[in-house]
Amino acid sequence: MSLARQDEEPEAVSLHEQTVNKLRTVLLNGELSDGSRIPEAQLCLRFGVSRTPLREALKVLAAEGFIELRPNRGSIVAPIDPVDVAHVFELKGAIENQIGLLAALRATPQDHDRIEQVHRELATHPDPTSYTELNQEFHRALATATHNPVLVQTYDNLQKRVLRLRFVVNENPVRVAQSFDEHEAIMVAFRARARLDLAERLAEHNRLTGEAVLRTLRGEDLAP
Amino acid sequence: MSLARQDEEPEAVSLHEQTVNKLRTVLLNGELSDGSRIPEAQLCLRFGVSRTPLREALKVLAAEGFIELRPNRGSIVAPIDPVDVAHVFELKGAIENQIGLLAALRATPQDHDRIEQVHRELATHPDPTSYTELNQEFHRALATATHNPVLVQTYDNLQKRVLRLRFVVNENPVRVAQSFDEHEAIMVAFRARARLDLAERLAEHNRLTGEAVLRTLRGEDLAP
DNA sequence: TCGGGTATTTTTGAATGCAAAATGATCGCC
DNA sequence: GGCGATCATTTTGCATTCAAAAATACCCGA
């Protein structure tokens, strides 16, 4: 058996995996409207792959909930059902709560540094695109601080399911400012390792974000 | 556009989906030991399908966490890491808690009937196989009573990840009896729609089950 | 006999090909 | 002119095929 093995990167990413990521990005960017047929042949052209890896990617994304597979009738972009969005936020609330409880106890100094850093960057990037991305990273960093990879992955999957909607909300300066205030409160609890408070503030922040998203979906004004 | 469409079943299950389910069953039954290579050709023979649908199934099961895909080096059965199992139960605890909070409020009379029924059946089927299955169904029914399909699906995915281990624990009569007692306590809270109590008892039951599973994994005796 | 390197076999990843189903268009009928 | 049925086209699902990579076997030299 060979010896030098651990350092060689397993980065020989297969074509199907690249396709999964590319297609997911396309879907997250909302390039294909909800419920529309997925143009298999067209995407093959676009990504420069044959149908086999593309179809494998479709299966995976269907398992992730981005796509609906209708046997013999093609795949469609999973429509965003406001009811479903509410359900995602409801579940996410339970996980945010758990994140608060665990992160307060388990966060390493490195975790603290990272989170503080992202938090600072958020303050200086109020434009919607950067804000959405950094906000995502902020919450992801907190999730990571639980040191529970299963939780992180599940949390990530849920986030992805509502990510397409986020940029809409984050275009509203009022909500962005409010959101940042909530982040400040979260940071206070996090720095103090106040687990119950951190849990509550994360859950509350999630609830308010969910409500803002749903209001936008319903076409209501965002001002609360 | 045609009119009679809603009643025709979408049950024309595609070959790849059947394969996903069959292969998942094989994995859940522990027929392939952890870390072992997945004999692609052999499984094609067994399921009577070609490599295309089988490989699609592998991708899906990899996304579900049952399988590890190593580019150009074949797929292996995802090894059960005790640390990971602990993480699954930790996250599941948060969700069980949420299930308790929501199910107590939202369960319909039908939900109550169903859950009572499964609970009764559990009492009369102490053999490991039935018990594992009914136990699964009991918790699934409670999850369903939240009427949050996103939660149900996420919960299901987590359950699947530890399901292979369950039958081991459920072969221990002591733990089975204890588990049933916990179910009784859960039912008392559920019937009374005592949401905080139901949440706590579900979370506690989850914690105890997790500990029993981990003890078994470590080869310790099950008696607490 | 052992080690290293090369050749062979096996296995994997992806493209192509083919049959069946669905979609859409044309035509006939009322 | 509107409606339905039949036929052509497109799209989908799966099998097969081909090339490349890995695993294995083999050979040769020390």
Automatic annotation (TrEMBL), chains A, B:
GO MF terms listed in the record are: DNA binding; DNA-binding transcription factor activity
What name goes with this protein? GntR family transcriptional regulator
- Keywords recorded for this protein, A-Z: DNA-binding, Transcription, Transcription regulation
Name of a matching Pfam family: FCD
Q: Which domain of life is it from?
A: Bacteria
Looking up InterPro entries in the UniProt record yields: GntR_C, TF_FadR/GntR_C, Tscrpt_reg_HTH_GntR, WH-like_DNA-bd_sf, WH_DNA-bd_sf
Taxonomic source organism: Ancylobacter mangrovi
Q: Which residues form the signal peptide?
A: none
Q: Does the keyword Repressor apply?
A: no
Q: Where is the HTH gntR-type domain?
A: 13-80
